[in-house]
Amino acid sequence: MENYLELLDRANDGTYISEENWDLEKISATARRLVKKYHLEWDRSQVISHDPALADALFQAGFEMAVELGAYCRSTERIIKLRQDEIEDGLKRMRQSLVMGEGKDARTLVARRLGDDHPPLFFGGTPGTAVPERFFLANVISNVQEPLIDLATCGTLTEVDGRTVRTGHPMEIVATRRELEYMRTAIRQVGRPGMGMLAAQSSVSELGDLAAAQERYLRPCDSHLVPMLNELKMDFRNISRAVNSLEYGMINASLACVIVGGLGGGPAGSAVVNVASFIVANLTCLADYHILHPIHVRHVATSTREVLWVISSVGQAFARNAPAIIVADIYPKSGAGTKELLYEVAANAIVNSVSASHLEGCGSANGTLPNCSGLEARLMAEVGLAVFRMKMTLKEANDWALKLLPRYEHIFTQADGNPGLPFDQVYDVQQVHPLDFWQKMYAEVKTELKSEGLLL
Amino acid sequence: MDKDNIIEQISQAVIDGDDAASAEKTRLALESGTDPLLILNTGLMAGAEVVGKRFEQGEYFLPELLLTARALKSAMEVIKPALLEQQSMGVGRVSGKIIVATIQTDIHDIGKNIVASLLTASGYDVTDMGVDVPLKIIVDKAEEIGADVIAVSCLLTTSMPYMKDLIELLKGRGVRSKYKVLVGGASVTKAWAESIGADGTASNAADAVVLVRSLLGSG
Known about the structure:
The complex is a heterodimer of chains A (about 450) and B (about 220).
Chain A: H1 6-13, H2 19-37, H3 52-69, E1 71-73, E2 78-80, H4 84-92, E3 97-100, E4 107-110, E5 122-124, H5 136-144, E6 151-153, E7 159-160, E8 163-164, H6 170-189, E9 197-198, H7 206-212, E10 223-228, E11 233-234, H8 236-248, E12 251-256, E13 259-260, H9 267-284, E14 289-292, E15 295-296, H10 305-321, E16 326-330, H11 339-354, E17 358-361, H12 374-389, H13 394-408, E18 427-428, E19 433-434, H14 436-451
Parallel strand pairs in A: 1-11, 5-6, 5-17, 6-9, 10-12, 12-14, 13-15, 14-16, 16-17
Antiparallel strand pairs in A: 1-2, 3-4, 7-8, 18-19
Helix pairs in contact in A: 2-3, 2-9, 3-9, 3-10, 4-9, 5-6, 5-12, 6-7, 9-10, 10-11, 11-12, 11-13
Chain B: H1 3-16, H2 19-31, H3 36-56, H4 62-88, E1 97-102, H5 110-121, E2 125-128, H6 135-145, E3 149-153, H7 161-172, E4 180-184, H8 190-195, H9 205-216
Parallel strand pairs in B: 1-2, 1-3, 3-4
């Protein structure tokens, strides 16, 4: 597609299909058929597949789904058909390197291969989490002050100056601009003013996104989200986000939160949908890079066995067949101040890093509470780099994940989850450093992982 | 016609998510004089229960649940006149009416769809209004169909305030006491639900059914 606006024509002129039929007769039925055709199978006893044939078959299945289905426009209830040559062209044009940020703080993301010579980069922050304004700035600082964190991200503001922020309401504009002011202040305060950001997270409709596209807020060297809806769907709100980047030049991060156990069925079908989503997002989201964020249908967390398998399989599928810049998000079930959170982060970081992704996190406590801090982002980066330094193989990473899972899996059956504590109860908010008990817990887990052979 | 056999076939059609078969078998059962309540409880609901359990155990996924809801819906269209007739004669009852919707400004619907499917599978009369549904339209619909429960969901934290606005709108119109208002979604907590004056929330779809049962009685 030479001109992105052509997408709007297709969204208006495409074949009509009800959303229910798209979900069931297109997504579910196609996923089921392709899983069978390509003999894709999730082995419950393993977290990471080290079978290259499976990764290649998964990529082919996802490609076939993208060509066969295209995308769905929810606003018009029509299919946005994408031609095979356009899809192939989109794959060829995927960025192999991308500079984010500016000056000495700029970082270059590369499309990593398995066992790549380039280490993963780390986005530190709490995406998707509603963080109160009273400690929003300190929370961002807790992440961006970490030396291993390369790029900044953040949660969302749901109140500004005591006023509630509602989606699509004028307050969304105020919240998104305020968020960006805090972000810019945070990176200045830690002496990294040129640090690249994935921000405007308070823009849940297109309003905030439009309001933030100014040098004072989101710079062209920063990125914003262009999400897809479950599954393989766009709407005019999300298309507006991509259109907003056309002249201004912001970096587009596609986000498809494929639900594992959702319309694609089990892990294998969901992985197919995720591969197809990225391939389609090259065109529908004008993706400069992709956020890999499959979520569990019941537990949400990215640290469940099923989701870890999907993260690894999708990462491997692209790394082997069409290297892309993929940033795999970490969304643990547990919250700050708990040991389980640190184990979840370690398992996720190992899987994401070994599977050729960059890393982003952490949306601790499933992003439902402000129970998140920079300390777990530090561990994420330390573990991710250890995997790189050790030249960890897929097989070894699988062993590590299997070793870590029993240390936290019980939280998935706990009635109240494992929410932990809010940021201001695990950090000194004025000095922005972890409280003793949280620092000690982190040190214990780190020592434990080191003693078991992780090069931390 | 073997009564047990046709009931079993109805159950199986629901488990298979085969909407054409569930409607056809239900029609055949009615024509052969099978008690509609027996068809409903021992055929349709028993099949739905199997699917609901398999979903909870992680054996089935969302597509199976949605197909089952579709199969139930088509069978219910066939059986409803007979059930209503029985009800007017004082036999049995059609379960509570529930409106489900993703609240104004939010477009996330997977969780809502799961809840709607499980409620349908539990025998409730569910009206799924879709996503981004304006508050006024929700209340108008509830009044129109005489709903017992209004269940709204959202994923976006910044759409949650509209749930409070919904309750305020019901109060403003003087109809709050007519409905049980349930709120749900990833970010909705029990404390928050209580703070806005909702009648309850649940952390997952299965618990949502339990909650509705406790408020309305069995489906």
